[in-house]
Amino acid sequence: MKNFVNNFYKNQALFYKIFLFIVTAFLIVYLLPKGGKFKYEITKGKPWQYENLYAPFDFAILKSDAEIVKEKLQINTNHIPYYTVNGNVLDQVKSKVPEQLKKTFTDSILKRKGRLLSDFIEKALDDIYEYGVLLEAKPGDVNKLVYLKRGNEAFEVNYDKLLLQDEIRPYLNVQINQSSLSSLKPELLEFFYNTIKPNVTYDAKLTQKELDSKLGSISYTRGSIERGTIIISKGEIVEGETLDILTSLKSEYESQVWSDSSYNWILFGYSILVCLALLMLLLFIRRNRRDIFDNNVKVSFIFFNIFLMVFLTTLVVNFEAKYVYIVPLCILPLTLKAFFDSRLGLFTHVITVLILGFVVPNSYEYMFLQIIAGIVTILTVSELYKRANLFISVGQITFIYILVYFAFTIIQEGNIQDLNSEMFLTFILGGLATLFVQPLIYIYEKLFGLVSDMSLLELSDTNSKLLKELAEKAPGTFHHSLNVANLAEAAANEIGANAMLARVGALYHDIGKMENPTYFSENQTSSVNSHDELSPAESAEVIIDHVIHGIEIARKNNLPDRVIDFIRTHHGTSLVYFFYMKEKEMNDKVSTLDFRYPGPIPFSKETAILMMCDSVEAASKSLKEPTAAKIDDFVERIINKQMDEAQFLNANITFKEIQLIKKILKQKLKNIFHLRIEYPE
């Protein structure tokens, strides 16, 4: 049991990675669609590259979206609306006729023409209410058939049979003029105006119910294919009816309800593929980015970003697949490049896109487009902390999306008339969403304790509290750090390393000298040397301790680990040579271990650059009457000595890059010492 516990603690980082791997794979497989995956890629307008395909089961041919839309439009256009007749209105109107007659006509007129008036009014009301009176017209129903509903019965009539209130007066004018009561026209018009009420209303609820019923009864299929029927032969062009049948087969295959056994096999297959993809990523990190592999926080960060992209894409596809390009997938390589490097960013992006191929429709087109966009992202964004660079890169990414979509449409459709303008808007929205990378990077820095170039830019401000304190307590060291920062930035730019990281590391690498500034020559302003009172061993200890003090000050001021690495490694395991030789003069048996920095040696290009620049800049102060030849020899001698001591063994830096750094340092030192051609007097 004790051995098990010891082994667990010894290998807990490995166990954590295994746990993280399993959890990430499980979550991704959980999100993937659980239907079967159609094993053929259907490419419109291209020859069928596979063997002859026969129907594996009976299935219906699905109608295209355009056909469905056309049918729905036709149903909406031809749909007959419903109008309801209120049967009580006519009875109420007729019951008020006697009373209204007395109010409108005099007694003498009623005595002379009462019977005639009653007959005319009754006939007119019957004619007016034969179909009904509408309160107001419903746009779109003119010259159409409508259903007129009386009680539980409904019958078709022409819409123009219904009278509007505005049409009653012209109708009555004609009827009155043709009768023997034309002399009483004003009184009759007043009578009908006060008597007639609308009795027909548009029945929106019933009309919509009938419309929904018709729309719901639309068949989404047309015809069927029997099992064993040949669908397409090898070499046949995928188009027209054949394309519709293949699409229907794919849809039917992927939507089948699988048995428990089949479902489990599908899960097993997905698990193998997802685990394989994630394993390739882990092996890549282990082989090429060992420092990241050993840091569980960084590995967790990478896996979290992969899962986040799969989750967002699945969410959008489940909502509406055509909006899949709104998901700003290029944020992934941008983010990883900001925290790590381009190569890891691109590799992770490709792995993520391969996994997303299981989720999205038209997977080949999607993967091709996203991989190209990822490559463009990596190649174009050089300095993410510069906002202009990000906007330019987003514009280029959006352009690539549109260009590739344009090319695929031409290949598939053979023309540009079928370009979907909505897709262009989707690409633009996806590009704009990529701008969210800057606030996202800030959030990640707080959540995972990582450092991006944007944070490094803030740290490079010489007005920061810590650098101002350095300038006040150790002005010579501060000036030396500025010079080293300039040299390191130039050298990093020359070999394609992270120039901002090198500059910030150089600015802070000697902050430990604030503890005992007068023990370092650049801060000594008088002829008194503080080391005169110490033995060589004690002096060496003070000099070496500035690394330890620097780490302590950096941690106290919450400097990121990436910056602290420069403090730890800028002297590597080199020897404090001056005091070692002084001690050796007094004691032949002196050990070099007492005069050697504890290390570690540089383990990145940037930390190696700092070691070279720091040594060259510090030693350059001792040059007397410098010439171009002296400077060349001086730089060669210092850096070659560091190489002989194997200080760059872990730095992943090549001989060619070291030669380029030497060239830059020689150039910069010549500029610092203002070496010019000597002209004759």
Automatic annotation (TrEMBL):
Segments passing through the bilayer: 12-32, 265-285, 297-317, 323-339, 344-360, 366-385, 390-411, 423-444
InterPro entries reported for this sequence: HD/PDEase_dom, HD_domain, HDIG_dom, Metal-dep_PHydrolase_7TM_extra, Metal-dep_PHydrolase_7TM_intra, PgpH_phosphodiesterase
Keyword set, alphabetical order: Membrane, Transmembrane, Transmembrane helix
Domain of life: Bacteria
All residue ranges annotated as the HD/PDEase domain in the record: 473-628
SMART domains: HDc (SM00471)
UniProt protein name: HDIG domain-containing protein
Originating species: Gillisia hiemivivida
